[in-house]
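Field log, afternoon session.

UNIT: design team B
ACTIVITY: writing a sequence onto a fixed backbone
BACKBONE:
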């Protein structure tokens, strides 16, 4: 296998994970993208970052996208090179919209785009490599395949995923709090207990099944289908502002959940203008991106 193209470009969607009861398994992709281009060069790797992470993320071989690209080339049996990369980043880092999963998927897709034969790195390998790289198949699956997905780990340790049917008219609103409240996924996982009461496990099992029905076209089930007892409450102390917004929205009848490990809040509904205005007055970004159905795409 060899690098056969002078340039590759990719766009990868932001994703939400959990969606309330589907902890570590449910995910969905949004029409809100990072875009990355890369050129193989003779020389030292350099990364130009525009937007989110500019001046913060590494601009050399330590960059997550470059590391994933190298892992993809290695998996396909292709030689390494130096790289000139340009990242246009929109997905907030540590925001609960799967930025690290999208970055890993971007690098692997770029490897696919540079190869003489992309079949050497099939999409399913992009999914499993990105999962081993980043650790969250619930974000990686929608980033790779688009739409809503359920992901799980097989007994042999391999990640799997399958699409979940979603009513195309389902409205989604994403509430991104001010940047000062960013929270790394690692930190948000440290506060989770190792075991949970059986009643709570049963509660989430039923709610996850209800959410599947709700997504597929039963909006009357969205409130019940977005209840959770496995992660959100345990994270309250590290997500006080987001939990308060989620609680308030739910009291008003909106099916609101914490997106991924937070602090972004996901609402499976359209907000009333006044509610939107109030959030914006408090520094929240209110996005209505729509559901991405294509997943990561080479451009
Ligand atoms: N586009 C990117 N380029 C380089 N590094 C990134 C990129 N996106 C995410 N990362 C890395 O991943 C970290 C955020 O990952 P994480 O804590 O899992 O939050 P989330 O995935 O919810 O945004 C960032 O602080 C950064 O180190
Ligand atoms: N299931 C994970 C999802 C993490 O998503 P992220 O977008 O916050 O990285 C969790 O809840 O920890």
């Amino acid at each position: 296998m060899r690098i056969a193209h002078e340039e590759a470009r990719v766009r990868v969607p932001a994703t939400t994970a959990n969606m309330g009861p589907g902890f570590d398994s449910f995910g969905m992709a949004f029409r809100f993208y990072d875009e990355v281009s890369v050129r193989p060069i003779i020389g030292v790797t350099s990364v130009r970052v525009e937007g989110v992470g500019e001046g913060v993320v590494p601009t050399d071989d330590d960059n997550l996208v470059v590391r994933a690209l190298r892992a993809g080339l290695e998996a396909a049996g292709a030689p390494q090179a130096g790289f000139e990369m340009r990242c246009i980043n929109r997905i907030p880092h540590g925001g609960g919209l799967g930025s690290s999963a999208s970055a890993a998927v971007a690098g692997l897709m770029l490897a696919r785009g540079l190869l003489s034969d992309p079949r050497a790195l099939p999409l399913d390998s992009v999914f499993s490599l990105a999962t081993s790289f980043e650790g969250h198949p619930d974000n990686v699956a929608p980033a790779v395949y688009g739409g809503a997905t359920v992901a799980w780990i097989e007994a042999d340790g391999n990640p799997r995923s399958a699409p979940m049917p979603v009513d195309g008219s389902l409205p989604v609103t994403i509430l991104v709090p001010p940047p000062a409240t960013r929270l790394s996924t690692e930190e948000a996982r440290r506060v989770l207990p190792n075991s949970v009461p059986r009643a709570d496990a049963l509660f989430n099992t039923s709610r996850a099944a209800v959410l599947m029905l709700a997504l597929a076209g039963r909006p009357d089930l969205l409130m019940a289908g977005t209840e959770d007892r496995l992660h959100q409450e345990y994270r309250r102390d590290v997500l006080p502002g987001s939990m308060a917004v989620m609680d308030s929205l739910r009291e008003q009848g909106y099916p609101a959940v914490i997106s991924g490990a937070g602090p972004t809040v996901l609402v499976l509904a359209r907000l009333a203008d006044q509610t939107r205005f109030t959030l914006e007055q408090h520094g929240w970004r209110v996005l209505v991106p729509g559901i991405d159905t294509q997943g990561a795409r080479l451009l």
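LOG NOTE: Residues 173-287 form a domain with the Alpha-Beta Plaits fold (CATH 3.30.70.890).
NEXT ACTIVITY: expression trials, pending approval
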